[in-house]
Write a structure and sequence with these properties.
Blueprint lengths: L5 E5 L6 E5 L68 H11 L7 H28 L3 E2 L2 E2 H15 L3 H25 L4
Antiparallel strand pairs: 1-2, 3-4
Helix pairs in contact: 2-3, 2-4
The protein binds zinc ion.
Length: 191
């Protein structure tokens, strides 16, 4: 045990320090460790480095970032949204999304649909080839099957994908987004 000849004990109710020689508790045991102001942590625990804590990234009015320590497991301090639980109902998520959305091109739903759109024609040719392999060189409506399907696809490529088909993709993407929302709320203990 480290000798503590002179230490400052803090009065818990007033917070005022008091200089004491070799302090003891009520049972007469010497008081050491973190109970003594300025002392080390008890049981030889190393003190952490408060400077290495992740900082809050909120923008300040006077410019720059807040840089206060962020709340545990979060990226914001308690003054800048760290205390917020975020939305806790699906309706709340929907409200937030509506408020933040301008055109939705970059939303999860919009991106999923455009991904699908980009693959549409190449997937079409691939499935025609697969179908022709399956059928052999069959005929559809009296025409060579492969050419028939390919001309249909070419028309679609020229005129754009049918709105009903696009709408179906959009619905599918929306369903996936809602399922993801629900999963996230459940993970946070809501729902
Ligand atoms: Zn902050």
């Amino acid at each position: 045990m480290r000798a503590q000849s002179r230490v400052i004990l803090k009065n818990k109710s007033t917070g005022r320090g008091r200089r004491v020689e070799n302090p003891v508790d009520r049972e007469g045991n010497p008081i050491t460790g973190c109970a003594v102001r300025g002392g080390r942590l008890n049981h030889g625990n190393r003190s952490g480095d408060p400077q290495s804590a992740p900082r809050c990234g909120a923008r300040r009015r006077k410019g720059g970032l807040c840089r206060a320590p962020a709340m545990r497991g979060k990226r914001r301090c308690r003054l800048h949204g760290g205390l917020s639980t975020g939305p806790n109902t699906l309706a709340g998520v929907a409200r937030l999304r509506a408020a933040r959305t301008r055109h939705g091109r970059f939303s999860a739903e919009g991106l999923a649909v455009s991904r699908w759109q980009r693959r549409y024609v190449s997937n079409g040719y691939r499935s025609i080839r697969a179908l022709v392999r399956e059928l052999g060189e069959g005929r559809i409506n009296g025409r060579d099957a492969r050419h028939y399907l390919e001309s249909m696809l070419a028309t679609e490529e020229r005129d754009g994908i049918a709105p009903a088909l696009l709408e179906e993709q959009r619905r599918e993407a929306r369903t996936a987004v809602l399922a993801h929302d629900a999963e996230r709320l459940r993970a946070k203990g809501f729902l």
